Amino acid sequence: MNSLQPDIDVLIANGDVERLISALYHDDYLIRKEAAFGLKKVGDKRAVEHLINSLLYKNWHKDYTILTGVRENSAEALGMIGDESAIDALIQALEEDPDEEVRWKAAWALGEIGNIQATEALIKALKDNDWTVRRHAANALGMIGDEDAVEPIIKALDDRDWHVRKYAAVALGKMKDERAIPILLEALDDDDADVRWKTGSALVKMGEMVVPSVVTVFQTGSWRVRGRAAEILGRVGDERAVPVLIQSLTHGRSFEKHRHVRGKAAEALGIIGNPDALEILLKTFHEDEYKYVQDKAEEAINKIRKTAKKREILTYDNGEISFNYPSEWDLMDTPDPKKIVKGYYANSAINLSLNRQADVEEISSEEFAEMLRNVLSIQNSTIISEDMFARDGMDIYQVVAENNEVVSTDILAVSYKKLGLLYYLWFAGDPEVLKHAEEGIQLMLDTFHIY
Q1: What is the layout of strands, in order, in the sheet containing 321-326?
Q2: All structural domains of the chain with their residue ranges
Q3: CA 296 → CA 229, 231, 232, distances in Å?
Q4: Which among 92, 8, 77, 22 is positioned nearest to 44, based on CA atoms?
Q5: Contacts of 336 (CB under 8 A, 6+ apart)
Q6: 346 SS3 class
Q7: Residue by residue, what is the 3-state secondary structure of 320-339?
Q8: How are beta strands 313-317 and 382-391 bridged, if at all?
Q9: Are the C-beta atoms of 242 and 276 separated by less than 8 Å?
Q10: Which is the CATH superfamily of the domain at 1-113?
Q11: What distance in Å separates the CA atoms of residue 370 and residue 41, rounded to the nearest whole number?
Q12: Helix, strand, coil proportions of the chain in percent (round to 5)?
């Protein structure tokens, strides 16, 4: 140990891993905390052994509250680095550390590493006394995807805390196991609105396998659940839902009596886009007694008609890059040399920025990916998935995240690096609208080219 006061900010800026490691053993425990934070930012595997040492709780730590912060930052750093040699230590921290902040960050880190070796410990953590630990354990199990965790996560959907129920639903959506469908359908009637929304999103992520069960709930559930079921059927977009949605708007035995559900059924038909629905939608627009239902029918009619028209494809080309995009997007150049284009979709329900960085020969795609992860972490966004691959001489990194700080927002960031030039697209907006725009966004990503 030593008494010199290192400038942690400078060490981080210089990527000085060796001196940051040295600072982990400093006499000043605040320096240790800052060093662990710095190693989280730098993310170098050389630090793993030392971060494991600073992570593990010792009895004398109880006399120094600041060491809790050292352990917290060490757990996060190990998660960011993602080295599997840290799994045992993180499991020990999850099971034994007296501080709930350290335990939940250990759970988070195990999810980031993604090895099934952590499954048993995370399942046990679903019964932790602290809801933050239970929440992150559920989310981590979803990221790992071990089918042995499905039943314990299903039980977590009955947790007394809504945060835990919400992330249990998110986890089950990621795992796409049919065993979860019945309990997720029950959770559509949860007391908490955020749980209900995430449950619906989870069922949507599970895709076409949920359609028969959701159709049944659409026909038999309470009016609130029927409305949510209609939303799910629309967002899944499976044509098998079209006949039952049409029947709900057709006078007869299957006619839907509640105006909210009729409106949601009309909306779903517009999203699915099958022209067979136009006749009943026109009838609903002209004859339904409620303006809400009429408006939803009109919106659906316009969507179907617009989809039926041949979509115009435009090209953006500034001489350095090019990509195609649908005419529904409004793109405009900016005077900013770094954020060169702004874009909007559906009255700004989705915002797009195209960003440029030059002279980045020394920055690898992995390092830039780490920068984006840090940005998302600072925003309190949760990473859902990541992918890294190469195409046409470009290194490409793609990350999907969600943020629920104020309103539910999905984020898609995709970077393209070629030699010393790096561009990245950043999409952020309403989750449902992003799903609608998915085809056009994919067109942009598939045609993006650096000359």
Answers
A1: 313-317, 321-326, 449-450
A2: 1-113, 313-450
A3: 16, 12, 16
A4: 77
A5: none
A6: coil
A7: CEEEEEECCCEEEECCCCCE
A8: unpaired
A9: yes
A10: Leucine-rich Repeat Variant (1.25.10.10)
A11: 8
A12: 60, 15, 25
- pLDDT means per 10 residues, the chain with 451 residues, are 77 92 92 92 92 92 89 94 96 96 96 96 97 96 96 97 96 95 96 94 93 96 96 93 96 92 96 92 94 95 75 84 90 90 86 92 87 89 90 92 85 93 94 86 93 85
**Please, what is the angle between helix 223-236 and helix 193-206, to 10°?**
40
Q: Which CATH architecture has domain 313-450?
A: 3-Layer(aba) Sandwich (3.40)
Token output for 260 = 């909210």
CB-based contacts of 397: which residues, under 8 Å, 6+ apart?
Answer: 365, 368, 369, 372, 386, 387, 388, 414, 415
185, 217 Cβ separation under 8 angstroms:
yes
Amino acid at 19: R
Q: The whole model's pTM is what?
A: 0.70
| Cα 196 from chain centroid (whole Å) | 17
Q: Counting every residue, how long is the chain?
A: 451
Residue found by looking up tokens 């006061």 in the block:
5
β-bridge partners, 308: none
d(CA 226, CA 209): 18
Asked, colleague to colleague, whether 1-113 and 313-450 share their fold, the answer is no
Sign of the alpha-carbon torsion through 205, 437, 322, 312 = positive
